[in-house]
Amino acid sequence: MKNFRPGTEGRRGLFVRWRDGFCQRYRSLACKSWFTRAIAAFFIVQFVGSVSVVLTVMFDPGEILNQLGCFGFSDWMILASNIISALYITWGVFLLRRSRLRAWKL
Questions:
Q1: Is residue 51 part of a domain?
Q2: Residue 89's pLDDT band (cuts 50, 70, 90)
Q3: Can you list the positions of beta strands (E) in the chain?
Q4: Residue 100 counted as domain residue
Q5: DSSP label of 12
Q6: What is the DSSP letter of 13?
């Protein structure tokens, strides 16, 4: 009983209050009817960006094609990650139309 300070037992920390508020706002936002369409639109825009990067690097008749032999490991990995990202986004958007649960688990 020596270390007991009245009034501090029920107080929650700043991080806990912030986390709980964020989770509550996210839950209310995710229940909106437009939320799934907004997420799908975001991923479609990201898909278009990934595909444009890949197509620019692979089929640009200009300077990039001349420098293709100078590509380093990191350049090839960026290209590969954009291709993989585009494939996952496409798969996820198609899954959204069938089963939202399976799409969110992806």
A1: yes
A2: confident
A3: none
A4: yes
A5: P
A6: P
Alpha helices in the chain (DSSP H): 14-30, 35-59, 63-66, 73-98, 100-105
Whole-prediction pTM value?
0.53
Counting the structural domains of the chain, the total is 1
Residue 5 falls inside a structural domain: no
C-alpha atoms less than 13 angstroms from C-alpha of 79 in its C-beta half-sphere: 14
User: Rounded to 5 degrees, what are φ and ψ at 62?
Assistant: -90, -135
Q: How far apart are CA 25 and CA 101, in angstroms?
A: 20
Q: Rounded CA gap, 58 and 77, in Å?
A: 14
Summarised one tens digit per residue, pLDDT across range 15-45 is 888 999 998 998 898 888 888 788 888 888 8
What is the span of the domain harbouring residue 49?
33-105
User: Of 64, 59, 85, 86, which Cα lies nearest the Cα of 75?
Assistant: 64
Amino acid of residue 98: R
